[in-house]
Amino acid sequence: MLRRAGLVSKASLRNVPSNTTFRRFASTKTLKETLQDIIPAKQEQLKRLKAEHGQTVVGDVKVENIVGGMRGLKAMLWDASVLDPDEGIRFHGLTIPDCQASLPSAPGGKEMTAESMLWLLLTGQVPSEAQTRVLSRELAEKGDLPPFVRKLIDSLPKSLHPMTQLGIGVAALNHDSAFQAAYEKGMKKTEYWTHALDDCIDLVAKLPAIAARIYRNVYHPNNQLPAINKDLDLVGNYSAMLGYGGNHNLTEYLRLYIAIHGDHEGGNASAHTAHLVGSTLSDPYISYAAALYALAGPLHGLANQEVLRWQLAMQKEIGDNVTYDKIREYIWKTLKSGQVIPGYGHGVLRNPDPRFMALQQFCDAQPELNSSPIIQMVKKTSEVAPDVLKEHGKTKNPYPNVDATSGCVLYHYGLTEFKYYTVIFGVSRALGCVTQLVWARALGLPLERPKSYSIDALQKLAKKDL
Ligand SMILES: CC(C)(COP(=O)(O)OP(=O)(O)OC[C@H]1O[C@@H](n2cnc3c(N)ncnc32)[C@H](O)[C@@H]1OP(=O)(O)O)[C@@H](O)C(=O)NCCC(=O)NCCS
């Protein structure tokens, strides 16, 4: 009942930091109007922070940070989400269960929608159902692709990786970029964010049509793509265009997956790439296209396809009689061959990923998933792998991350083309990346330009220290 009314139980908010902006809006303001209200105070807050505390030291930079992929370096501004190494992600202070309890779902569904997550990320506020529906309609109305983008995607070879195709389709949308057009006309810096927002909303709206077209072209060339239904939410339309609109549980799974994958603070490779490229005042489309190619790497977004490949190989080798001992043996075999265990470990997290737990809970609640051999194997693997990885002694985090299970659920529901899985992640990650692109322009953040060191220079510095 609370959930239907868009309110949140106190119990579910017990752990929300007291400084979190978190209330239901009674108004029916649009997303842009809501942002217009919020932005001046944030601009003022940042101005004062710079003026009064610009010289405050936040941390040390060690040689190990510089040669270690900048791990642990606190050097980015990112408001929408924070990743705690132990408890995992919070979106503007809200945990995944908080979001599940408070963010509006689609009509007939229970899982939060992508647009309600987008609203939370952008504004720090929980939208009302009415606001979510208005945003859903706006996205549906903007969802159709320009004819030249359709033609472009249709001209790509089927053998080209779906992620490469996604990046091409997204980059091509910048043909109609409002931000770029306004920049060329000489817009004022204070206007950057509104044009960036227009592009960002348009990009989020069009991603499902690009992603579904790639899926159709590569795997089901004889299928007709349905027209976008103006009464459906973003993921409802995406699922329908993929050909799974009749599968309520898969559509709900996609809603959950896309919402909770939307943002994972700023330093992950895709988010950081969008932020870096956006800081050059490239428009949101090409900034996000760049991010998609970071997402396409096996240590980042491609891991979900790797997990499935690995779990299926395990299933093939072990056969039907799956025991913990056999799984343990298979994990050791993988490690001894010098490979990583996909779906385990994380650059920041040091505990099981709450996104993994949310997807597991979804599986536990669906009898058909509970009894699925591949899902059972994933679950058993997650019970065995941490001890093996601890004994192996290398990874700082022996626990499952979200990718340990995400692809296997899609596989169970018949979406078996695992080279495609990262594309779904790409539809999701836009939520966080566009949020940061809008805010970076609203706050007037400068061109990102860290200083680099050579090995010799670091060695000289280290000698001076002795
Ligand atoms: C996610 C990942 C890239 C993080 O990398 P990282 O921050 O460098 O991780 P760590 O600091 O724990 O790595 C320390 C060592 O443990 C190893 N390690 C990390 N995760 C491992 C895993 N899942 N299986 C085996 N070894 C692993 C690393 O390869 C590294 O070995 P090295 O010292 O020989 O180079 C890494 O854990 C990984 O490759 N996981 C598998 C892929 C995956 O699931 N990616 C999705 C992430 S959401």
Automatic annotation (TrEMBL):
Main location, first listed in the record: mitochondrion
GO biological process: carbohydrate metabolic process; citrate metabolic process; tricarboxylic acid cycle
Top-level division of the source organism's lineage: Eukaryota
Coiled-coil stretches noted in the UniProt entry, renumbered to this chain: none
Keyword Transferase set for record: yes
Keyword vocabulary terms for this entry: Mitochondrion, Transferase, Transit peptide
Molecular-function GO terms, alphabetical: acyltransferase activity, acyl groups converted into alkyl on transfer
GO cellular component: mitochondrial matrix
Active site: 300, 346, 403
One Pfam family in the UniProt entry: Citrate_synt
Subcellular location: Mitochondrion
Similarity section: Belongs to the citrate synthase family.
Protein name: Citrate synthase
